Amino acid sequence: MEVIKTAIEGVVIIEPRIFKDARGYFFESFSQREFEEKVGPIKFVQDNESMSSYGVMRGLHFQRPPYTQSKLVRCVKGAVLDVAVDLRKGSPTYGQHVAVELTEDNHRQFFIPKGFAHGFAVLSETAVFQYKCDEFYHPEADGGISITDESLGIDWQIPTEKAILSEKDTKHPNLKDFESPFDYKV
């Protein structure tokens, strides 16, 4: 696997080594050993999958301490624009984001460490999205910032009139009205 660094330290794009032939393709979607060698120590405890249609926007979600989560995400069918927003108080990149298109064809994965909000927008007719988490889901620790906060400068590639959000996701605060529970550690 190739690890591509982004503008925000710790947030990386992973491109697997794909073996193609007349039968199709094969790739290792996760190797604990290789991930720890190239990205860092991790112990994933939960895998999730969602299916969504064009225009669905999910996020920007996180879990509050002590149940913070790192995530390794990928799109196995269709295409999504995936985004991580730095919420670590004191971080030189606080409030900045990294966006990457994840598709069934590019097989890219995106690693989002603890202290970031995560969300995605479905760019294809449908998308099946998978993610690994290093902490179990705790509904009492659920949090978010507004996926439509224009101050974040995210181009979701979805016209506003076509965006489909859950009721919960329409109620998250904008970044300026948010008190982050995450600290930046040097």
Q: Going by CATH, what is the homologous superfamily?
A: Jelly Rolls
Unreliable runs: none
* Rg: 16 Å
Quick one: biggest sheet? 6 strands, antiparallel
- Overall, the morphology is globular
Mean pLDDT: 96
> How far do the termini sit from each other?
27 Å
- The helix/strand order is EEEEHEEEEEEEEEEE
Multimerization state: single chain
- According to CATH, what is the topology? Jelly Rolls
Helix content: under 10%
Number of domains: 1
Question: Can you identify the CATH class?
Answer: Mainly Beta
Q: What's the architecture, going by CATH?
A: Sandwich
State which percent range the strand residues make up. 35-45%
How many DSSP E strands? 15
If strands are numbered along the chain, what order do they take across the biggest sheet? 1-2-11-7-13-5
| Helix segment tally | 1
Which class do the helix and strand fractions yield?
A: mainly beta
Describe the SSE topology:
Elements: E1 2-5, E2 12-15, E3 19-21, E4 24-26, H1 32-38, E5 46-53, E6 57-63, E7 71-77, E8 79-86, E9 88-89, E10 97-103, E11 109-112, E12 116-122, E13 126-133, E14 142-144, E15 182-183
Parallel strand pairs: 9-15
Antiparallel strand pairs: 1-2, 2-11, 3-4, 5-13, 6-12, 6-14, 7-11, 7-13, 8-10, 8-12
Features:
4% helix; 186 residues; mainly beta; 1 helix; Jelly Rolls; five-stranded antiparallel β-sheet
Question: What do these coordinates show?
Answer:
With 186 residues, the protein is mainly β. The chain has one domain (2-183): Jelly Rolls (Sandwich). Helix content is 4%, strand content 41%. It has one helix at 32-38, and strands spanning 2-5, 12-15, 19-21, 24-26, 46-53, 57-63, 71-77, 79-86, 88-89, 97-103, 109-112, 116-122, 126-133, 142-144, 182-183. The strands form 4 sheets. The chain has a 6-stranded antiparallel sheet, with no helix packed on it. Strands 10-8-12-6-14 form a 5-stranded antiparallel sheet, with no helix packed on it. The model has no long low-confidence stretch (mean pLDDT 96).
